[in-house]
Design goal:
alpha+beta; 9-stranded mixed β-sheet; 16 helices; 16 strands; 40% helix; elongated
């Protein structure tokens, strides 16, 4: 039986080759070829009509908003837009495909030749995008969760006809980590454009991974297995890791990888054979006779290009230059477009954008983690953080007071301005009042005073702590240090 070190040594001899196919549901109110609602969670088979049910004589009419969203996504992914693209019928039988074919795009997709740059241990790496095309979704087969489900399948056609874009990468991905980073960047970019909510739980973003291995230095690709319908980025990474190990072990033991579709069982951490793909499926593609060629001319492309927002990577570079923050700060602050917008709004009115960024990275993030909240659900808004940063910068409140106020914000689920107005904590800057407290602290701790004056200067920190304790953290730290040093030396 092979040991873990044997397995690692065997894997090191091989190079993984990975390509990803990502389906993204577009955030339109109605379906791609009819006026039925795309709302998730409605009663089964309630968002349907003769067109998306595939009734004889019902004709598709293209939703122009899906075209705009597809082009917008393609531009954000550095794709070339094809001025004239063709819809095609992709023929196959499946219970939740009412027409017996899917309207998709084949040899003339709406966009091609894009790329995404990802960060790797060796620096930036460009992952090519072969194509981006539009298509309609199929329905959903349900195998459990309804009465008398044993050996039966129910079909919900609400999703049939929902608009999708399929984004197919080049086989440029060389590890599970790179696949994870590619998907993370892809999702981030799509969310910034606003064309999809990328909600994996609702099926708005789905991924299939094509995985093969070859000996390092070999030019020919190995036989690929397709891992289908994985519902989280973490599971996709795990599925790819398992599949690489499985294929290497199979080849090393004298076996042969079979071209097939496989499913990933997240509880067991392994993939299972779903169906053989030894021979390519004949989908009998031909141009959709009920739809004219789609023409997105230069004028329409220019109009759509105006809707393209500043994308996350470019925004990070600008924010680092404009606000003097670190790249790590910028990464956190641009986690979503909405949050980045809020930060910039706060930073423009704050006297210290850098302090705002530090508070987000430190005090805010620590509490979000403790309360198991994401940054979008923080009780402290970016305006609240900007206000607290300015108060701290001006010396009106100490860091101790700020921490206490942040704690109250999270406990009471209220924003910083409201909590500050109620508590009205002010930093003590009265020299006489602070000197009086210092005198009392020194008188109460003669042993420590003797140690300090005998040369043990680190004892000063003890006195600072005692003074801050007596003032409940409200004394100005700078003033305390300045006055205390004079008193101790005196």
């Amino acid at each position: 039986m092979a040991t873990a070190s044997d397995t690692l040594a065997a894997i090191a001899k091989y190079e993984p080759v990975i390509g990803l196919e990502v389906h993204v549901q577009l955030l339109t109110n109605t379906k791609i070829f009819c006026s039925c609602s795309t709302k998730f969670g409605n009663q089964p088979n309630s968002n349907v009509c003769p067109v998306c049910l595939g009734m004889p004589g019902a004709l598709p009419v293209l939703n122009s908003k899906t075209v705009e969203y597809a082009v917008l996504a393609a531009l954000a992914l550095n794709c070339q837009i094809r001025e004239t693209s063709i819809f095609a019928r992709k023929n196959y039988f499946y219970p939740d495909l009412p027409k017996g074919y899917q309207i998709s795009q084949f040899d003339k997709p709406i966009a091609e030749h894009g790329f995404i740059e990802i960060k790797t241990a060796n620096g930036l790496k460009k992952i090519g995008i072969t194509r981006l095309h539009m298509e309609e979704d199929a329905g959903k087969s349900l195998h459990d969760g309804f009465p008398d489900a044993a050996n039966k399948t129910a079909v919900d056609l609400n999703r049939s006809g929902v608009p999708l874009i399929e984004i197919v990468s080049e086989p440029d991905i060389a590890s599970a980590e790179e696949a994870y980073e590619y998907l993370r960047r892809l999702k981030e970019i799509i969310l910034y454009t606003g064309v999809s909510d990328c909600n994996m739980e609702e099926g708005s973003l789905r991924c299939d991974a094509n995985v093969s291995v070859r000996l390092r230095g070999q030019k020919e690709f190995g036989t690929k297995a397709e891992v289908k319908n994985v519902n989280s980025f973490r599971f996709i990474k795990q599925a790819i890791e398992y599949e690489i190990e499985r294929q290497v072990e199979l080849i090393e033991s004298g076996g042969k990888v079979v071209q097939e579709s496989r499913l990933y069982n997240s509880q067991e951490g392994r993939t299972y054979s779903m169906r053989s793909k030894e021979q390519a499926h004949d989908y009998r593609y031909f141009p959709e006779p009920d739809l004219l060629p789609l023409v997105v001319d230069a004028r329409w492309q220019a109009e759509i290009h105006k809707q393209l927002p500043e994308l996350p990577e470019g925004r990070r570079h600008r924010m680092v230059a404009e606000y003097g923050i670190t790249e790590q700060d910028a990464g956190v602050l641009t986690v979503t477009k909405n949050f980045a917008d809020q930060f910039e709004e706060a930073a423009r009115v704050s006297k210290s954008p850098k302090r705002v960024a530090n508070l987000v990275q430190g005090e805010l993030q620590a509490r979000l983690k403790a309360y198991n909240l994401d940054i979008e659900h923080s009780p402290i808004s970016m305006k609240g953080i900007a206000m607290s940063a300015d108060l701290a910068e001006a010396g009106t409140i100490s860091s101790k007071i700020l921490k206490d106020l942040y704690d109250l914000c999270f406990e009471r689920k209220e924003d910083f301005p409201a909590i500050y107005e109620k508590e009205k904590p002010e930093q003590i800057t009265d020299t006489g009042a602070i000197e009086k407290i210092i005198d009392e602290v020194m008188a109460a701790n003669p042993k420590q005073l003797e140690q300090y004056r005998a040369g043990k200067k680190t004892v000063k920190a003890f006195f600072v702590g005692q003074v801050m304790k007596e003032t409940k953290g409200q004394a100005s730290p700078g003033l305390v240090n300045e006055l205390l040093e004079k008193k101790l030396e005196g």
